[in-house]
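Priority: medium. Attachment 1 of 2:
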């Protein structure tokens, strides 16, 4: 049984807006008479944000299976459910701890309905751990 959870649309629009903004700033600098190396950096940053916003629509941010909880992005963490020894909450975020790793599920990264569903899944895990 797999439960995939997508990021919030607010985060998507934020990354998309920043990407467009940085590309506009970089393009203005490149097409002006005195081009600097920072203008190319702005273009690269803008492309990074556009790719990030595209990947937000194509992938899931968090995947909960019967064995593993993992973040689905570059350098995302994964935790085996049977190794979890502490589940806590701080400032609305859910913190899962094992002896060697810690995974924080940030509330702002998800819509309210999605986060409450994640919270329900974690509560089930907490019951299974006890």
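Attachment 2 of 2:
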């Amino acid at each position: 049984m797999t439960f995939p959870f997508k990021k919030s649309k607010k985060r998507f629009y934020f990354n998309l807006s920043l990407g467009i903004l940085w590309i506009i700033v970089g393009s203005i600098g490149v097409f002006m008479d005195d081009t600097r190396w920072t203008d190319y950096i702005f273009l690269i940053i803008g492309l990074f944000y556009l790719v990030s916003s595209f990947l937000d629509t194509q992938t899931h941010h968090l995947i909960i299976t019967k064995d593993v909880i993992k973040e689905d992005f570059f350098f995302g963490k994964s935790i085996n459910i049977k190794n979890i020894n502490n589940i806590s909450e701080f400032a609305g975020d859910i913190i899962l701890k094992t002896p060697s790793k810690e995974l924080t599920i940030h509330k702002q990264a998800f819509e309210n309905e999605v986060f409450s569903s994640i919270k329900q899944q974690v509560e089930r895990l907490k019951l299974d751990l006890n």
